[in-house]
Each structure stands twice: as structure tokens, then as C-alpha cells.
Amino acid sequence: MLARQISGGQKARGTVRRAYQAVMRLRSLPGRLLFPSAASETRPQRPPHTPLVIRIQRRRVPVEHLQSLLASNPGYATRWIEAAAKTGLVAAQIVWGQLLLEGRGALRRDARAAFASFEAASTSGDAEALNMTGRCYEQGWGVEADPQRAIACFEAAAQAGHTWGQVNLAQMLMRAGHPADRPRCFALFRAAAEGGTLKPNLKAMNSLARFLEEGWAGPPDPAGAAHWYQKAAALGDHWAQFNLATILFRQGDHDAAHRWLGNAIAISDNGFRRRIAPLLLARPEGLLRERGLDALARCAAHGAPEDLYAYAQALDTGVAGSTDPVAADIFFSAAAAKGHPQAVARQGRVMQARRWPRLAALGRAIAGALPQKIQ
After folding, report:
1. Which of 21, 83, 141, 240 is in the most buried spot, having the most CB atoms within 10 Å?
2. What are phi and psi of 6, to 5 degrees?
3. What is the CA radius of gyration of the chain?
4. What residue ranges in the chain does DSSP mark as E strands?
5. DSSP for 275-292?
6. What are the residues facing 54 on neighbouring strands?
């Protein structure tokens, strides 16, 4: 705790002195006493100016507070967080690393500097910093990818009860492919699933349901899987909604499956839509193929060349029903305009195929307009 006394400046002292002198002059005038003399004798004497005491107390600044500050005042918050990170404030180091990793606002993305900031914060033992350092080692963000170091960081974060640390550790162990690790993964997913309703908890619920559905850590438990899928789906997890829909469809509840699929496609991102579209389009059921086409349409709406081309192909081949060559041509042209190589090649072939009939018709028209040869 730091205490600092700040007294008034020369100007303030001069003002007080002049006011005091004026009061004394008024008191000296006959019959013009400001206060009764008795009261003056008993009134406690105050100093001409009372010092102002400011107490500054250090307290922990949570990451959530800094993120809220960023949302309300990005420019000021970014400068403050950078300065605080350089002084070693752990929460600021974490948020500064996230800003550098994303390249948010006017900041240029710098994964190496982001990793350095996360790693510096992790030396304090902070669980969030350990988890983010593990993510850098897992994904190769600013450092060479190292699965073993990633697992070590996630292990430390999970031991501290960090939900993302639990989920990330379980996923890393699952990817390693050792059956002996499956009971540990199941326990990690269950602990995270039962710990709340935030995004990492929902991810854990979906993964726990997969374990129960597939029987990866014991006998298959379809009812238990449906329970956890239903819980995560109701809380807005699109993968849980998709997986729940597949169960409902197998059980014959096509209307409910259709609703959950539609919702999952509507609320998700294009990464999810690109993954499920081929799965749905390959199904024999027309209802599922329609949902696959909907996923492609939503991807194409963002204008990426590969999404435009994929949607155009689906329309051209009629994979989800009847063909739509007019709409397909529009999306093929849009993909070609953005440089998609297959769309460009296709447009070239189409233009060439259309040119020759027009040239032949023009030739016939010219021939008909010329005078006939005199015999």
C-alpha cells in the first residue's frame, strides 16, 4: 500500500492567506464580528489547508476485466495492456498475447511475440497462460510445434482446474491414439462437462457424448450420449446439434432431426459447414441432401472462390435434386472472376462452345445477304 500526501500549490496557499487576512480585518471593525467571541474561543482551529491523502492499493486484475475494457475503449485499452504487459502484469501479458496472435485492430499479427508473452506469463503458474502456451506448442504459433510440450502445458493447466486445459489435454491424448489413455480422457471430458455451461464446457459435453455413443471407455450408452448431446445442443453447440440430429434420424424422428440440422447450419461457421456438407450430400435421403446444399449456399454467401465453385457444382449436377444451370452459371462466373482455376478453365470452355454456333450463324447470315452468282 502506498500513501502520498498532496498539499495545495502556491496559488491555493495565497488564496487562503488573503481570505484569512480579510476575515481578520472584518473582525477588527466595531460591531462587525463574524462569529461571537465565545464561539471563536471554543471553535477548534483548522489549518489554512487540509492535506489530501490518496491511497493506492495493488489488486489482481482479471483477464475478463481487461477484455471488457477492450470492448468499451479499444484504443486506450490496447495501449494500457501493452504497457502493463511490459511491467510483468500476468493478466496483461495473456491479453496482449491474444491481441498479437489475432492481429486485432491496428496491431499486426505477430505469433512469435504472442508466444513470448504467453510463455512469460506462464512462469507465474497461471492456468490460462499455461493453456495458451500449450496451444502455441500444439499449433506451432510463433514456435516450432511440439506435442509433448503442449501436453505438459495442458497437464499443468488441467491440474489447476482450467476447463480448456482439461479439454485440450484430453484431445491431445486422444489424437496420440493410445487406448490406455481413453479412461483418462473420459474423466477429463466428464469433469469439464460437469463444470459449467461456457464454450469449453459445451465442447466437453459433445466429446463426452461421443465417448458414450461409441463405447470408447466402456459399453456403448446411447441414452447417456443422447442426454449429453441434448444438453449441449440446447445450450447452442452446433456439433452437438448435428450429432443429436444423426441419432434422431436413425431413430426415425426426421422432423426433429431436420430442425436440429437446420439450426446447426444456421448458427455455425463455414469451417463446420464445409465439413458436414459432403457428408449430407452423400446421403440417399433427399431431406439430408437439401441440408447439405443449404450449408454450401451459406458458405458461398461469404464469397470465397472455393465455396462459390462448390455451390455451383452442386447446382449444376443437381446433387440435392433438380439441376439449376442458370444459377450454377452465375456462381461459376463469380468463382472465375475471383481466380478459381477450375472455374476459369470451365468458363473458357463454355465461352468457346458458345462462340462457334454464333460464328456459324453469323456466317450463314452474311452468305444470305451476298448477291447470288450469275450463271
Report:
1. 240
2. -120, 115
3. 36
4. 2-6, 52-56
5. HHHHHHHTSS-HHHHHHH
6. 4
CA distance 265 to 276: 9
Of 297, 319, 300, 309, nearest to 346 by C-alpha is: 309
Alpha-carbon distance of 233 to 91, in angstroms, equals 32
C-alpha closest to that of 229 among 216, 215, 248: 248
Q: How is the chain split among helix, strand and coil, in percent rounded to 5?
A: 70, 5, 25
Numbered ranges of CATH 1.25.40.10 in the chain: 61-160
Amino acid symbol at 262: G
- Of 235, 224, 302, the C-alpha closest to 263 is 235
Q: Tell me, what amino acid is at 286?
A: G
* Amino acid identity for residue 330 in this structure: I
Long-range CB contacts for residues 339-348, cutoff 8 Å, separation at least 24: 339/305, 340/305, 340/306, 340/308, 340/309, 342/309, 343/305, 343/308, 343/309, 343/312
Are the C-beta atoms of 164 and 157 separated by less than 8 Å? yes
CA distance 182 to 173: 8
Q: How many residues does the chain have?
A: 375
> What number of CA atoms fall less than 13 Å from residue 227's CA on the CB side?
10
Cell representation of residue 134: 500449450
Residues 142, 113 contacting (CB under 8 angstroms): yes
124, HSE (Cβ side, Cα atoms, 13 Å): 15
Q: Which CATH class is domain 61-160?
A: mainly alpha
Query: pLDDT truncated to tens, each residue of the chain (375 aa)?
Result: 333 334 444 554 555 566 556 555 544 544 433 434 444 445 555 556 556 555 544 556 788 888 888 888 888 999 999 999 999 999 999 999 999 999 987 899 999 999 999 999 999 999 999 999 999 999 999 999 999 999 999 999 999 999 999 999 999 999 999 999 999 999 999 999 999 999 999 999 999 999 999 999 999 999 999 999 999 999 999 999 999 999 999 999 999 999 999 999 999 999 999 999 999 999 999 989 999 999 999 999 999 999 999 999 999 999 998 899 999 999 999 999 999 999 999 988 877 766 555 555 656 666 666 555 544
